[in-house]
Design brief:
- The complex is a heterodimer of chains A (236) and B (479).
- Chain A is built from five helices and ten strands, in the order ββαβββααββαβββα.
- By secondary structure, chain A is an alpha+beta fold.
- Chain A folds into two domains: 72 residues, Roll (Ubiquitin-like (UB roll)), CATH 3.10.20; 122 residues, 2-Layer Sandwich (Alpha-Beta Plaits), CATH 3.30.70.
- In chain A, the strands form three sheets. A five-stranded mixed sheet of chain A has the order 2-1-5-3-4, covered by helices on one side.
- Chain A is globular.
- Chain B folds into two domains: 103 residues, no CATH class; 366 residues, Cytochrome-c3 Hydrogenase, chain B, CATH 1.10.645.10.
- Chain B is 41% helix and 18% strand.
- In chain B, strands 3-2-1-15-16 form a five-stranded antiparallel sheet, covered by helices on one side. In chain B, strands 8-7-6-11 form a four-stranded mixed sheet.
- The longest helix of chain B has 33 residues.
- Classes of the chains: A alpha+beta (236), B alpha+beta (479).
- At the A-B interface, loops of A face helix 2 of B.
- The structure holds iron/sulfur cluster and FE2/S2 (inorganic) cluster.
Chain lengths: 236, 479
């Protein structure tokens, strides 16, 4: 008997290795489950809930939930799409996301999710939080206006760079990404070669002076929606 | 209308077919003579605060949002400024020519929009023709070919912008020290296909403006006209240039006030005056002072200032234009239209020249050199000279921004034009819609971009309100 787990996503049979999450198994099968805080090089964190699926009818985050024999997963259904659109909208109104002049536009995972799930003008009121920019580092910029608190930078700095440059402070609406120094990013040991610098899904953590170097049409999500790379695996 | 022995105040708001919001107030005295006429523009200065703290490389993309009509001008003025921040002001040929192409595309689309959509109804049907036909729909019905040309020329200009900036509106092409793409052969060939058609249409557009002006010269010459200084940038050899050059100012007779002034020291030569009744500042030439130092910018000023156009068709047209005033500067407000069409001709010729230049397929796109912390970028926008002035700190953040947009420079001239037309046409007569339109015709000649916002053209209602000097509403007209 094989040690593979078999389960269903939207009526399609999917196989997983024991211990694999639903998301990893779905990826291998060419089924896209949307995500924001999850990243292939990082341990799952489960904070954004964009990857929420129904497992035997109960909401679970696919990036943390292990696959189990015989479970029925609902992913790409009307109900889930609507719920995800709502989540994306909430993320958009919570920060100051001005795509028209954001250099991450076209390469931004949040914007790409909004396009994929048809979020155009959010129905929730914008919160216009007062957040600041830390431009003290010669090569790296933090614009907290756009931070979605995914903790990718926190995890990458700790787990990939072995540094702990970033950490969260505060709770609820006060929660923000801070640096492990008295005041500014310039006072940390952050370096432009750190893996953490390129891992932000939005335009909150940036390499300086890159700006709009990539022309419109050549950006990551200009021609194909987010998740297309995973869907291209189907049958491969 | 109730009679009153007090001064009456007429408010025209908003000015139709002028992009953005404006308000005209006309004060009549007890004999219904025009006492004072003013154009009020709400200028969005908040922007200069808003950019503080933003990283400098974001600015060329961000500032475009000031305007839905000529965003490319803001994009390029800011990019020119940021070139100096990164020490990359000596652009590679590919970068400079891509920007030039973008800018000429912008002139084509903006001038075509202005002339065909906004102004041709006044010229074709008369200033006081029935409002029901005096609009772009009326033009389309009576002169379908002309309306189609207007639309197609504008579209062509937008296509030029798209291949240089990535999008028809609010693209990203120019970056500090260069450009983010070159022109592919496919993009070039697509544009070359229709360029000769554009040249033909450009010629006929100049002819319409020229014939109209020459035939009606007697009526147009005094209409909203006055002598003024003229300001623009100029190429080092005196040729017309809209992208780069020193500042030139001449007086109403053509005497040079200053010439080839380095953009970086513009504020040694130009200052801005604040007046209590207007949100918008009034720029003036320092050496002459605020009283007489104001100046016109835009097509009329540029054609007056140019020693020559470096393209044959536009240069021939310029000579004819200057001959009307015996080679002295033309100070006729309504001559803006003719000058504008000569410029459009030039932009089409330059687009053709650039498309045939293989430098546009070059791959050397960006240069950088020694950092600077203060910078000025000056460019000619379709509506006139545009000044961008910034300071950037060592963390790459903007600490100061000052913008003088062309509508601000034309603030005094437009007010003069409004005053002149009101005095000449509205004094002591019963005010009709047609007469009020005369005021707008004069404003439209300058093509102001009032609050730099895009509106559906010709859709805004015209509200005319009469007040006495205590602010009581006496009468109200609505178009
Ligand atoms: S800065 Fe970017 S990577 Fe870090 S928590 Fe915020 S959004 Fe996530
Ligand atoms: S991707 Fe699963 S919770 Fe964020």
């Amino acid at each position: 008997m094989s040690d593979k787990i078999t389960f269903m996503i939207d009526g399609v049979e999917v196989q997983a290795q024991p211990g694999q999450t639903i998301m990893v198994a779905a990826d291998a099968a060419g089924i896209y489950i949307p995500r924001l805080c999850a990243h292939k090089d990082l341990a799952p964190f489960g904070s954004c809930r964009v990857c929420t699926v129904l497992v035997n009818g109960r909401p679970q985050s696919a990036c943390t939930q292990p696959a189990a024999e015989g479970i029925m997963v609902e992913n790409n259904t009307k109900k889930m799409t609507k719920m995800r659109a709502n989540l994306i909208e909430m993320l958009l109104v919570e920060g100051n996301h001005y795509c028209p002049y954001c250099e991450k536009s076209g390469n931004c995972e949040l914007q790409a999710l909004a396009y994929r799930f048809g979020v155009m003008v959010p129905k929730y009121p914008f919160m216009f939080p007062n957040r600041d920019v830390d431009a003290s580092h010669p090569d790296i910029l933090i614009d907290r206006n756009r931070c979605v608190l995914c903790a990718r930078c926190v995890r990458a700095s700790r787990d990939l760079d072995g540094k702990n440059v970033f950490q969260f402070v505060g709770r609820g609406p006060e929660k923000r990404v801070e640096v492990n120094a008295n005041a500014r990013l310039a006072d940390t040991n952050a370096d432009v070669t750190d893996k953490a610098v390129d891992i932000c899904p939005v335009g909150a953590l940036l390499r300086k002076r890159v700006g709009f170097e990539v022309p419109i049409g050549k950006r990551l999500y200009d021609s194909k929606p987010i998740g297309s790379d995973i869907e291209a695996q189907k049958g491969a | 209308m109730p009679t009153t022995d007090k001064t009456k105040r007429i408010v025209i708001e908003p000015v139709t077919r002028v992009e953005g919001h404006g308000k005209v107030t006309i004060l009549l005295d007890e004999k219904s003579k025009v006492k004072q006429a003013r154009l009020h523009i709400v200028e969005f200065r908040g922007f200069e605060r808003f950019i503080q703290g933003r990283p400098f490389w974001e600015i060329p993309v961000m500032v475009q949002r000031l305007c839905g009509i000529c965003p490319v001008s803001h994009h390029l003025a800011a990019a020119k400024a940021m070139d100096r921040i990164v020490g990359g002001e000596n652009l590679t040929p590919t970068a400079e020519k891509m920007r030039l192409l973008m800018h000429h595309g912008q002139f084509l689309q903006s001038h075509a929009l202005h002339f065909f959509h906004l102004c041709s109804p006044d010229l074709l049907f008369g200033f006081d023709a029935d409002v029901a036909i005096r609009n772009v729909i009326g033009v389309a019905a009576k002169y379908p070919e002309l309306a189609v040309q207007g639309v197609m020329m504008r579209k062509y200009g937008q296509e030029v912008i798209k291949v240089t900036a990535g999008k028809k509106i609010h693209g990203t092409g120019a970056i500090p020290g260069g450009i983010n793409k070159n022109l592919s052969i496919a993009e070039r060939d697509e544009l070359l296909r229709d360029i000769d058609q554009m040249i033909e249409w450009g010629k006929s557009a100049v002819k319409i403006a020229k014939d109209y002006t020459v035939e009606n010269l007697e009526k147009l010459a005094p209409f909203g006209s006055f002598d003024s200084n003229h300001l623009s940038i100029i190429r080092s050899d005196g040729a017309y240039d809209i992208y780069d050059g020193g500042l030139r100012a001449i007086d109403f007779e053509g005497n040079k006030i200053f010439d080839h002034v380095d953009n970086q020291v513009y504020n040694d030569y130009i200052a801005e005056e604040v007046r209590p009744w207007s949100y918008m500042k009034f720029p003036f030439i320092k050496s002459i002072g605020p009283e007489n130092g104001w100046y016109r910018v835009g097509p009329l000023a540029r054609v007056n200032n140019a020693d020559y156009f470096d393209s044959p068709l536009a240069e021939a047209e310029r000579k004819e234009f200057m001959a009307v005033t015996n080679d002295k500067p033309n100070n006729i407000t309504m001559a803006y239209h003719w000058a504008r069409m000569i410029e459009m001709m030039h932009s089409i010729e330059k687009i053709k020249e650039l498309l045939n230049d293989t430098d546009l397929q070059g791959t050397d796109l960006v240069v950088k050199g020694d950092r600077r912390e203060e910078t000025v970028g000056i460019i000619e926008a379709p509506r006139g000279t545009l000044f961008h002035h910034y300071k950037v700190d060592k963390n790459d953040q903007i600490t100061m921004g000052n913008l003088i947009v062309s509508t601000t420079s034309n603030n005094e001239p437009m007010n003069r034009a409004v005053q002149k037309v009101a005095e000449d046409h509205l004094s002591g007569v019963e005010i009709t819609e047609g007469l009020l339109n005369h005021v707008e015709v004069a404003i439209r000649a300058y093509d102001p971009c009032l609050s730099c916002a895009t509106h559906a053209m010709g859709q805004m209602p015209l509200v005319v309100e009469l007040f006495d000097c205590e602010g009581n509403l006496l009468d109200k007209k609505q178009k």
